[in-house]
């Protein structure tokens, strides 16, 4: 197993994608953020094209406006537990400007049996920050099962009070023992939460096309797309 990963790879994983300036602020989902922001974890689960990453970018901005330290990490299939710990440490260091977290993971990189110790050290660093910390993980369905079990689930179960985890995936994640819903550690949003309402579809079409599209046509497009965000975007592009 490699003891280190090229830094440019970590930089890309820790860099959020750009949010288009024309992206619609969805007030009802901003209200959901306000309701859920204090919990240990939020899982956003929906097929591709439902705007999961866009929603997390918008929530990231809301947390930043509140003074939180927000860490972004895009997952991939090579994120075995040790690499996941190293990538997370780099992302935390990138967001906070602290170097201890990066050195901490590097110390455990050559010891694959100590990945839990590395994550424990990172959690201790987060607790010492004395500020709200948010870890946002995109494309979590790509993570190896061992990382879900020994990485992501471990973070959620052992999160200090100032830590919140947000995860996006196309399928439900197997986070043993985490539980979902009001009685569990993980709150969930699904396709029906992300599906566009008629007023949201109309606002998006106005942003993309302007007033050339009359309200009846906008209503028909909304109905035809069934509130599927990518479907509406494709229809707007065709027009």
What does this structure look like?
The protein is of the alpha/beta class. The protein is 50% helix and 12% strand. The chain has 11 helices and 5 strands, in the order ααβαβαααβαββαααα. The chain has helices at 7-13, 27-36, 52-65, 81-96, 100-108, 115-128, 145-157, 191-194, 198-209, 215-225, 229-238; strands at 41-45, 69-74, 133-138, 163-169, 186-189. A 5-stranded parallel beta sheet has the order 2-3-4-1-5. The N and C termini lie far apart (51 Å). The mean pLDDT is 86.
Q: Outline of this structure?
A:
The chain is built from 11 helices and 5 strands, in the order ααβαβαααβαββαααα. With 239 residues, it is an alpha/beta fold. The longest helix has 16 residues, at 81-96.
Secondary-structure element sequence? HHEHEHHHEHEEHHHH
- Contiguous helical run count: 11
Gyration radius, rounded: 19 Å
Q: How far is it from the N-terminal to the C-terminal residue, by CA?
A: 51 Å
Secondary structure tally: strands:
5
Which percent band covers the strand fraction? 5-15%
- Uncertain parts: none
Q: What's the shape? A: elongated
Strand order of the largest sheet: 2-3-4-1-5
Mean pLDDT: 86
Biggest β-sheet, characterized? 5 strands, parallel
Helix content: 40-55%
Structural class: alpha/beta
